[in-house]
Write a structure and sequence with these properties.
The protein is an alpha+beta fold. It has 8 helices and 9 strands. Strand 3 and strand 4 form a beta hairpin. Helix 4 packs antiparallel against helix 5, helix 5 runs parallel beside helix 7 and helix 7 packs antiparallel against helix 8.
């Protein structure tokens, strides 16, 4: 049930006029980027360390990871035995599964498996943001399109799938706000129904979720809404997570 991230990053147009400086590296199967305004050095070490640690703990592809070792256990045992630093990620994934009747399902591959790929990157962004409590300049964290504004105001948006230079909608993220996108127009129909494991085919091409505080919930909810479709997804968001809002792109 891994989510495809297809959010258009609007910083390119801002770099020349706003003095945006960025540092990037590869981790968790994608590109991580820290961006800052107003000059000065960007200390990537705190974010790099967090991402590496979470990848080691939550990798579904590493048989030695904590996630792989805990996968055969029941949910309550997983929560009891997992590392304190990642417990919130497991708990959020199990909660979304319960809220959706297992449409979102960290065990979509089978009872004795676990996969947090649809929520872990957002969680990692939140954890990295905690390592910059006294950021002295506008700072944005980006992990594969999971964005969080640690400080300052940042403009971003959802790219138009029919126009590489166009935008469906642009918006701003300010202190603590986050967003994430799940969609198919980068990797095709790959988002899985957690109940059957089958790839979902809908009239939705992407869903971007903007959350006031949590990149983890933005990440998990974007997948959830994609799986539900627009009508049911809007109703779910209103009932369960009214603090968030969604931007939909149809086929």
């Amino acid at each position: 049930m891994r989510a495809g991230v297809v959010i258009g990053f609007f910083l390119a147009a801002l770099c020349a006029c706003s003095g945006v400086d960025s540092r990037e590296w590869v981790c968790m199967g994608t590109v991580a980027r820290l961006s800052a305004k107003d000059g000065g050095e960007i200390d990537v070490a705190p974010a790099r360390d967090v991402f590496a640690r979470i990848e080691k703990l939550l990798s579904a592809h590493d048989p030695a990871s904590e996630l792989s070792r805990l996968a055969p256990l029941a949910d309550d045992a997983v929560l009891a035995r997992c590392s304190d630093e990642v417990r919130a990620c497991y708990a959020a994934a199990f909660r979304l599964r319960d809220e959706t009747g297992a449409l979102f399902n960290p065990r979509w591959r089978g009872t004795n498996t676990l996969d947090l790929g649809a929520i872990a990157k957002g969680f990692a962004v939140d954890e990295a943001a905690r390592r910059y409590p006294a950021a002295d300049k506008p700072l944005l964290i980006d992990l594969g399109g999971n964005l969080k504004a640690v400080r300052g105001t940042w403009k971003t948006g959802v790219r138009d799938p029919e126009d590489p230079d166009g935008w469906v909608e642009t918006f701003t993220l300010t202190d603590g706000m986050a967003c994430a996108t799940s969609g198919t127009y980068a990797r095709g129909d790959h988002i899985r129904d957690g109940r059957t494991g089958a790839a979902v085919k809908t009239f939705v091409r992407s869903v971007t979720v903007i959350h006031p505080t949590s990149a983890m919930l933005a990440d998990g909810l974007s997948t959830t809404l994609f799986l539900l479709g627009r009508e049911k997804g809007e109703a779910f968001l209103k009932e369960k997570h009214p603090e968030a809002r969604a931007i939909w792109v149809g086929r």
